[in-house]
Amino acid sequence: MQKPASPSRLFWPAQPLPAAAPPGSWRSFSVPAARKNFPDGEICASYNLVTRHVLAGRGENTAVIWDSPVAGEQRRISYVALQGEMEVMAGVLRGLGVQKGERVLVYTVIAMLACTHLGAVHVVAFGGFAPKECAKRIDAAKPGVIVTASCGLEGMKRKIPYLPLIREAVGLSTHKPRWTVVRQRIQMPAVLDPRRNEREWKELVETVVPVKEGHSLRAADPHYILHTSGTTGVPKGVVRPLSHLVGLSYTTHSIFDFHPGATLLCASDIGWVVGHSYIEYHVTALYVAPSALRAILHSDPTLSGMRQHNLASPRSVVDNWWSTEAGSSMTGLLPGQQVKPGSAGMPLPGWDVRVVDDDGYQLPPGEQGNIVVALPLPPTALSGLWVEKERFWNSYFNRFGGRYFDTGDVGVMDSEGYLTGAIIAVPGVTEAVVVGMKDRVKGEVPVAFVVGDAAEEEVKAAVRREVGAIASLWAVVTVPEEAVPRTRSGKVQRRWFRSVLEGFRMG
Q1: What SUPFAM superfamilies does the annotation carry (predicted)?
Q2: CA–CA distance, 397 with 97 (Å, rounded to integer)
């Protein structure tokens, strides 16, 4: 696959997803903050995610497998059942006054789909968030309703009461949601306080009127808000527009080779027993962070149940590179393309990935520089930061004067179009992060933070051998795995390393 000469023409499938109104044009673009894909198109997301599968005769097929090793419970949810639960939960939210465009703070899949069905914007927060962090998200998104459970389960014995955390977060926040809906768990039921406008989910569904028809929204309307870590300590509310469904459909079909009947396991906090879950559920595609992969390999070294994008010898691990802001893989491999060890793959359709110097000039193959994405961005990318236009510009576009989207990462493009990671190929290295540090003479020098027991000189020699002397490492810092800063989904916070070296805080 060669790097596209006209990337803006590459991304789109021949036929769009079912939509309420087909787009007459596919992009409106002036400045980054005003980017809109399919600006005059409309789409019903809940129809595409759930209903169309029922209408296509796949209603009794399994849509979601819920497996809680901690609770000792398993459940298979068919598309018909998922549709029913979505419509009921949408009725609950509508009964509480939730309207199109309003934000709802959630962390459960059914609630996410229900918000989508209503045209509301769901804001995802992990269960058990510290009250201070949760309060930041409440003030940023200003949700009308919070949907939570009475408790969470971590490990075989630990129970975390969620409602006290929510109450404290609401007490700390300036914005006060109208309602808090609580799903009681038998492991630790909560006593609700009507004075705090707390409602029990079970009581609400007894009298609910299900919402049968999903709302259609314009492609540029927000679908959800996902907060990502900012090095200032203030989370950034990444806005994902409805148009991202086009890229999501492309990714699942073309990159993961996903089709009806296949099973995708996407794991974050994978835990210890999930090492065998992919065999139990006949998983055909496994999408995990490196830490989760190590847990699986420890549990089942042979990995005999996988195919294509798999981990089973003699097949290869297929790496990809993306971010919360991207919404889909920016680099990777399509099925059938040759894997290059230590590489995160090639720029995928829709992503014009480049390596530039600090002045924004594109570097030749083999030279390390800043990884950027030429504009315009594809539909899966963020359309902005929630109510923070200035921060959106300063975080991603200001550094290169609006010419590129700044990923904050450093890398090398080789002559074949691969982003190389020679350090990962060094025996004893399990993970590596390379960031640039300012240098008065050279402008910027690469510093590697590695997890593992490889010697510094061995790592430096590998980079010189695989990439060339131009990418010679200035320093190699060994970091314990537990000290690597990560997001809740297991991704390394690269900007944190960079901000430490540069001695300033990036937004």
Answers
A1: Acetyl-CoA synthetase-like (SSF56801)
A2: 38
